[in-house]
Amino acid sequence: MSILLVSRGRDVSPWIDAIQSERPDLEVRVYPDTAPKEDITFAISWNHPLGVFKEFPNLKCIASMGAGVDHILKDPELPENVVITRVTDEHLTNDMATFTTAVVLNYMRGLSAYKAAENESHWQPKPYLRQRDFTVGVMGMGVLGAEAAMQLKKLGFSVQGWAKSHKNIEAIPVYAGADELDYFLATSHVLICLLPLTPETANILNKTTFEKLPEGAYVINVARGEHLVEEDLLEMLDKGQLAGASLDVFRTEPLPKEHPFWEHPKIDVTPHIASVTNPASAAKQILQNYDRLTMGEPLINIVSRTKGY
Ligand code: NDP
User: Fold this and answer.
1) I need a surface site. Which of 10, 227, 261, 271 has the fewest CB within 10 A?
2) How far apart are CA 268 and CA 1, in angstroms?
3) What ipTM was assigned to the predicted interfaces of this complex?
4) Which residues belong to the signal peptide in this entry (predicted)?
């Protein structure tokens, strides 16, 4: 009985500890190793070397270490019949909601500007916004987006969402599809991106999108770096169409030292920490799926390979 961990650039030792403390009977293998590849039916993965999964002829399931699965689905050599699952976890969901709330509050009270003033010992009170002054629009009303929207709503913000399909969430209008995107954008002063990365959503944070927002809008990207066209953001900030941006995810991570986002006075950068998977709690649900697979039962948290999320 063994499970394979496959990851590039992520320390897998917390995952080994979490799996072994739950299931001491399971052998945890880390790719690459020399043990027989035929033994592996279940892999847990983050950012795997592309093409590796075709080496495992009996692989049935790949579990993402996080909520996103773009890092798995982008592999052109992914074996066809393998089921992909992801993590949905109350910690992950709440952490994302507290992060996005913190960024919206920071924007509302202009706190980042005070940090810059403090560095120059400059005492300058500024006017600030209140909840009723603006509407927050959340792109992607799935597990993370819906909770982020609901936590903001509870704090008295006007909140709306945009998804592929309509939703029935109390006091939060949710617009759907391309037809309703323009209205959603035109009425969102703060735009939070919590979409999965798919061919349809890649580059969605672009000049055309930004121009449809109210002048002086604020953009928060906590989804994936590939959602954002970086040069379009810089242009819209320079023109004043956007007042600022808070970015947690980037096309290249870590964000290279020479990248213009670091020094930009209107951009706040965080190092992909909006919501970090806790291996101890994620391993429990991933192991449930391992057991289900072994017993021939239906898996949970399955991703649609056609939809891409
Ligand atoms: P879900 O799959 O639960 O939700 C996705 C949402 O996006 C759904 O509401 C879906 O609509 C909507 N959507 C998908 N495609 C489109 C489209 N083409 N047009 C409009 N709406 C669309 O994802 P999660 O909420 O769990 O996670 C979202 C993303 O957050 C992850 O994929 C990951 O990339 C990112 N993430 C970032 C983290 C960080 O630390 N920065 C941590 C964890 C995740 P519908 O409901 O109608 O299907």
Assistant:
1) 271
2) 46
3) 0.99
4) none
